[in-house]
Amino acid sequence: MISPRGRHFFANPGPTNIPDSVLLATAHASVDFNDPAFFAIYQEGRAGLRRVLRQESGELFLYTASGHGAWDATLVNLFSPGERLLMISSGYFSETWAGMAARLGLEIQTVAADWRHGADIAAIERALRDDTKGMIRAVCAVHNETSTGLSLPLPAIRAAIDAARHPALFLVDTISSLGSFDFRMSEWGVDAVVGGSQKGLMLPAGMSFTAASERALAAHREARLARGYFDWTAMLGRPHKSFMGTVPVTFFYGLRESLRLIEDEGLENVFARHHRLASGVRAAVRAWSGNRGPELFCTNPERVSDSVTTILMPEGADAESVRTIARERFNVSLGGGLGALGGKVFRIGHLGDLNEAMVMGTLAAVEMSLGRAGIPHGQGALDAAMAAFGD
Ligand code: PLP
């Protein structure tokens, strides 16, 4: 192993690169979280987050917790013991979210799916139509399944719920999509949105949130699951209407800067950049897949993710060998396979503070690592990526 020199290329699908100006903004001395000067910055951050979420009504609850905390908070605040959720299977994160709900005493019905292709919308509608007794309280979808590199078409799922005339709440995890590709809470009729700080928002990990619609707030008033740290009713009684105890003030100095970066670039331009970079990565993987090399895990062109690409190794080849060489020899960090996909895939994160040159550096390191690991692969991946970036 040689000592890593130069910049560490961080190509994980979250946490993501933190822009220098955000890092500097978070380096802030402690302030009283009840100080009016901080409260103004706090309110500005909440309002900005609501703009990114496209949330027009309801409440936004923030927590000092990673995304798992926001999952937990959303479940305990909306449901009562024994109630049923319809979870759309998409990969490791839909399974983990369902597992947490089961541990909290909820019943899970799953819409099964081929993880390489994504769930069938008609199957979601069928499950809701078949629920003649109205047992399903919510439909849960992971907008961008970070383990498989597959995104779900949320407006189509909303349309399926409406077509079945089902009153279920619509819960969406946007942890690896928010601020990277299009999401519109109010327009798409989403009732509870789970998000986190460490991906498209380009902040450190440790703050997460739930945006709740008016319908979700009404469901909360009936919900009977036990809750302590994450109780929305208790939060609503506090001036910050979020958090229990100390507010993590430094996040809000960072958030002010990350929102400035996002809004200066413009959300539409942020999305276009993510799409361009993702197209380059996908073009490279398609080239590698020649000569029986690694291929795109997601086989559905309409659902490929613009924030992460999951790459399936040829039969018998170990993805971890490629990751290890990339890290130790080239100082490039790639994402690994999660759960059942461990060792079978690796992942390139292409979200957040990123440009073409950084993606090219990562792709070059992956290609050199494939070569050193003795993995067969097609040629021309870097040229294909550059061509896909366009002018
Ligand atoms: N949901 C999705 C889609 C994720 O990608 C992740 C983490 O990567 C989580 C939930 C869990 O978030 P955290 O690791 O911040 O707890």
Give a written overview of the molecule:
The protein is α/β, with parallel strands linked by helices. The model has no long low-confidence stretch (mean pLDDT 97). The chain is 41% helix and 16% strand. α2 (36-53) packs across α9 (249-265), α5 runs parallel beside α6 and α11 packs across α12 (356-372). β6 (144-145) and β7 (150-151) form a beta hairpin. The strands form three sheets. The protein has a seven-stranded mixed sheet, with helices on both faces. A five-stranded mixed sheet has the order 1-13-14-12-11, sandwiched between helices. The chain has 13 helices and 14 strands. The protein has two domains: 9-16 and 267-389, Aspartate Aminotransferase, domain 1 (Alpha-Beta Complex), CATH 3.90.1150; 20-263, Aspartate Aminotransferase, domain 2. Pyridoxal-5'-phosphate binds at residues 14, 66-68, 93, 142, 146, 173, 175-176, 196, 205.
Task: Assign the CATH superfamily of the largest domain.
Answer: Type I PLP-dependent aspartate aminotransferase-like (Major domain)
Q: Specify the biggest β-sheet.
A: 7 strands, mixed
* Secondary structure tally, helices: 13
Terminal residue distance: 38 Å
In CATH's first tier, which class of the largest domain applies? Alpha Beta
Number of domains: 2
Query: What's the overall geometry?
Result: globular
Helix content: 40-55%
Q: Roughly how many Å is the radius of gyration?
A: 21 Å
**Total number of beta strands:** 14
CATH architecture of the largest domain: 3-Layer(aba) Sandwich
User: What portion of residues belong to β-strands?
Assistant: 15-25%
CATH topology of the largest domain: Aspartate Aminotransferase, domain 2
Order of secondary-structure elements: EHHEHEHEHEEEHEEEHHHHEEHEEHH
The helix/strand class is: alpha/beta
The average pLDDT is 97
